[in-house]
Amino acid sequence: MTSVSRIVTKLLKKTSKDYERAIEAFHKALTEHRNPDTLKKLNDAERANKELEQREYFSPKVADEDVKKVMSILRSKSILKQ
Predict the structure, then answer these.
(1) Is residue 65 part of a domain?
(2) Which GO molecular-function terms appear in the entry (predicted)?
(3) Is residue 49 part of a domain?
């Protein structure tokens, strides 16, 4: 395992939601040395990032904000009556 991979692994343990930076660093580590452990950690980080994005996407709070935005746009264009 390369030193970059070890650093990124420790970073993920401290800040569990910083997957995008970790994925970039794992890609850099893989360009230096193609290691199966680093590749597995990259795949795990990508999978966790995807799951996090899906949870945030289906968040009721975000959905309510989006509904309010759409309703205000429709009202401003007189498509939807108040």
Answers:
(1) yes
(2) Hsp90 protein binding
(3) yes
Record the pTM: 0.59
HSE of 80, CA atoms in CB hemisphere, 13 A: 10
What is the span of the domain harbouring residue 40?
3-76
Q: How confident is the model at residue 5 (pLDDT cuts 50, 70, 90)?
A: confident
pLDDT tens digits, one per residue of 40-69: 988 988 998 898 888 777 778 877 888 888
Place of tokens 């290691």: 35
SS (HEC) of the chain: CCHHHHHHHHHHHHCCCCHHHHHHHHHHHHHHCCCHHHHHHHHHHHHHHHHHHHHHHCCHHHHHHHHHHHHHHHHHCCCCCC
